[in-house]
Every structure is written in C-alpha cells, then in structure tokens.
Amino acid sequence: xxxxxxxxLACIIGLSAALPSNPILRKLDDLRFxxxxxxxxxxxxxxxxxxxxxxSEVARYNPTSSNVYHxxxxxxxxxxxxxxxxxxxxxxxxxxxxxxxxxxxxxxxxDGGVASAFVTVLVxxxxxxxxxxxxxxxxxxxxxxxxxxxxxxxxxxxxxxAQFINWLNEASFSSPVQYHIVGHGxxxxxxxxxxxxxxxxxxxxxxxxxxxxxWINHSDRFQPTDAAYTEVIHTNCGVNGYLSDLADVDFYPNxxxxxxxxxxxxxxxxxxxxYFGESITTGGFTGRQCINYMAAxxxxxxxxxxxxxxxxxxPKMGFFGVYLLETNAAPPFSRG
Length: 336
Prior knowledge:
Blueprint: H1 3-18, E1 24-27, E2 33-37, E3 43-47, E4 49-51, H2 52-60, H3 63-66, E5 68-73, E6 76-83, H4 88-92, E7 102-106, H5 117-129, E8 133-138, H6 140-143, H7 147-172, E9 179-184, H8 186-197, E10 204-208, E11 229-233, E12 249-253, H9 265-281, E13 286-290, H10 293-298, E14 307-309, E15 321-325
Helix pairs in contact: 2-7, 5-9, 7-8
C-alpha cells in the first residue's frame, strides 16, 4: 500500500474514533437535563440537548400524513368522524357545518387520542354549551416519543394543522373568524403556532398551562398577537407550565402554581383543563387585575379595581393584563 494512502486511512480511522457516536447538534435549553411530566402524571428526566439520534426521530415524523383529525358535533358527540385534508368527498359525509363556530383542540406530550382527560373534559363541555364543530387533533405520532423530539415536532405539526384549516375553510366556505383554538402543555404553544400560520385572523386562542421546558427562549412560543384575542391560564407556572405572561390576558388561579385539592405538580398542570371546561359550561371564574405576573404569583393584587371573567366561550376583545383568582378544591371549582 502506498505510504500516502496508508496515512490517509490512518487519519480517517483516528478521526472516526475521536468523534462521538451520537454528537450533540443543538441545545434547546441551557440546562441540559430536566424533569417533565407526561399525560399519565409520570415524570421523566429529559435531555434538552438534541443529538443526531433525536434529529433522526424528528425527521421520521410527517405531520401532514400522520396527524389525525376527529370531528365531534351534537349529532355525533361520543363517536368521532374522520376528516382528511384534500378529501372534500369525505367532508361532505360528516356532520361538519360552516354555519357553526369550530373549536380545535390540541393535546400535549404523550397525551394523544380521544380518551385523554383533555378531550373527555372539553369536548362534552363545548357541545353542552353551544352547537359547534369540535375538531380534536391527534398528533401522538409526533408527541409520544422523546420530549426534545416532541418539542421540535410541535412547530411542524402546528404548521400542518394550519394547512389543514386553510384547506377546510376553502372546501367548506368557512372563515378564520369562526375558530377558537385551544391547547394544553406543548399544545398550548402549538395553538399559537397554528393560529399564526392560518390564512386570515383567528378570533380566539386559549393556552392551558403552556409548557415551560424548552420554550423560554423559543421563537415559536405562544404570542399575544397570535389571534384577535389570546388568553392563557397558568396552573403550574415555573414547573411544568410557563412562568411569565404570554397572552393578551393571563390568568393565575391561586397564584398559578399550587392548586387547592392537588397534591402533585401533575395535578396542578391538568387543573387548567378542568377550570377551562367549567368556565365554558357555567362560568363563574372572576379574576382581579394585577400589576404584573409576579404580583399574581405573590397574591398582591388588591389595588387594581378591574375584574374579568376567565375562559368561557367568547373572546374578551379590548382587555389586556394579568389577573388573579381563587378556586375551590373540588368541583364546582368556581367560587362565583
């Protein structure tokens, strides 16, 4: 073997041995290892530094083909009907009506399908309160794996949901002003991503305890400008949920972290879903305005006279700020 070829092979072998087998490609957060809750209430120590293997998992997820859209209406309140993008024939066979408002529900990490608490609480709540179309987006193929991969998939899946809504509006002659998009956890940020990529202005977006881990410096996190009116309910802020305000209006029930009747952060995180569901059917949650989110967390919001209802069916156009309220430990959670 010629000496120069031998040296080249030796260099290649040496370089290969020096490189890690699963190199770090991106840091999603300065703190590498963090605990994150899944939909079953179990905590996982997750790696927020994306490796080559993580990127490979993200690349395998195709939200356009794998997202599943379940339609519920008052005519089919318990058994969903499928909706498929670019399939107007199937749409005509469903109970979807362009004369009604449309609710889009987006679950969080490891919380797919139609049997999660997020879905079983909110679908019947919306249908009981109003004759609406409810579309549950099952993106579990992109959200059930590694948290770092699910975080990355939140963005691409949100863009795919927006494409689906654009098609649905064109096929059914619907308008973005008819939509209310609601998401929990990762789905809270995804709700904003969907709304900002829809053609036209979505009227109402609600984030239910949007996730904290990986989102502090994320350019695609929930934004107040994502819809004509945006609202966030914080129930586990600083742990599973985002700490500071994100929307036009941010509510901090019980200071935003320890919910009465809960004995775990997982319970606190899920409480946002139950509070919002109750606000749709019976209302009664009235917050008092705070100077800022730290005042809400500390419970020092007694000098601002303004009061505002949390959640509910209708957007509260023209209102802004941070609000504090107290709840009961068990249903009915509202003290109103």
